[in-house]
Amino acid sequence: MTKKTTIIIVCGGLILSLAMGIRQTFGLFMTPVTGELGIGREGFALAMAVQNLLWGAFQPLTGMIADKFGAARVIAAGALVYAAGLLVMANMTDIAGLQLGGGVLIGLAMAATGFSVVLGAVARAVPQETRSMALGVVSAGGSFGQFAMAPVGQALISAQGWSGAFFAMAVLSVLMVPLALAVAGRPKEERGHQTETQSLAQALKEAGGHRGFIYLTTGFFVCGFQVVFVAVHLPAYLVDLGLPTATGAMALALIGIFNIAGTFACGALGGRYSKKRVLAALYVLRALVIAAFLVAPKSEITVYVFAAALGLLWLGTVPLTSGLVGQIFGVRYLSTLFGIVFFGHQLGSFLGVWLGGVVYDATGSYDTIWIASIILGFAAALIHLPIAERPVRLLVDG
To answer: Distance between CA 300 and CA 304 in Å, rounded?
Structure first.
């Protein structure tokens, strides 16, 4: 591995640490923000749902721009929008500010600084034989960000209030701009798999007609439904159970730290074994972990065990799913194609986080969403099994 490749991997991981880590703290703000602004949990959840929906909707577009012009400009612009969204949230006085800052601006920013753009740049920088491992390492950066930012976010809220905490995070988000310089440069073709004669339109046509691409998009929907529901609603759920406020921050931190190992392991396993089978096993295990937590007596120890177990299974789907897209369709248009698959993830995120708020406000309980997460986990495992993992014969100009 060259020095340049190592720098790209490290900086890519740090970008995801900041982008993912900051947004993963938003669940900690639910109780203080809704209490002070006088809005229900559905209102807060809707802003987070809009964020995830816009992130997914604009991900293919930012992926196309990154595939054509390179990832650096896209990430740098996204970082500035990220900072703007956090500043709006720091100064919001009603639900409109929450929707604009936390929903619209952060959603657009995540489309430019999230997985598809960063992983596309990394995938093109490493050879096929080490790609799955590299994607796992960079994806784990997002987990490290969650581990680091959860206690930092809670400490900032305690010391400066939620407004001051958002302002401090806005300053941190700007650090993604210099880190983006490491992934500067236009994408190059991958010899032996992708030819210069394939157009983006042909790549999209090819993927759209491939059943495996549809199955991956559908399965990723489930991932989004599960993880974003937990990330946003778990802290408030634990407060409802009478557990200390700090328990939620510690649970999110544990998910993050254990996911570093889990994501790295999934990347390594994807390089040795069938990626679709590893994905299916991950979804089954995630469903079982959620089911066990739902029926177990609730205590701080139970929560921490659940968080650690779920963390091992948290973002392992990302290197496996993006790796499968690259394996089947090549990496020339990986940011675009994975961006489309990721839109499925974000549709699930939208429903998981929003329905969590709707169901809670209507019933005073999250049990319906927990049960739905279990059922969807088993369904996702089944839908991955028919995927044909072999590379396609690419459509090209005659």
So the answer is: 6
Residue 85 is classified by DSSP as H
Q: Where are the domains of the chain?
A: 3-384
User: Which ranges of the chain would DSSP assign to H, the alpha helix?
Assistant: 3-23, 30-37, 41-69, 71-90, 95-98, 106-113, 115-125, 128-173, 176-180, 200-208, 211-240, 246-272, 275-295, 300-312, 317-329, 334-363, 367-384
CB atoms within 10 A of CB 130: 14
The CA R_g of the chain, rounded to the nearest whole Å, is 20
**Residues contacting 351, CB < 8 A, separation 6+:** 49, 225
The pTM for the full model equals 0.74
Domain at 3-384: CATH code: 1.20.1250.20
State the 10-residue block means of pLDDT for the chain, 398 residues long: 80 90 86 85 85 87 84 92 96 91 94 84 75 74 76 89 94 93 65 56 80 90 92 89 88 87 84 90 96 93 95 87 84 80 89 90 92 96 89 59
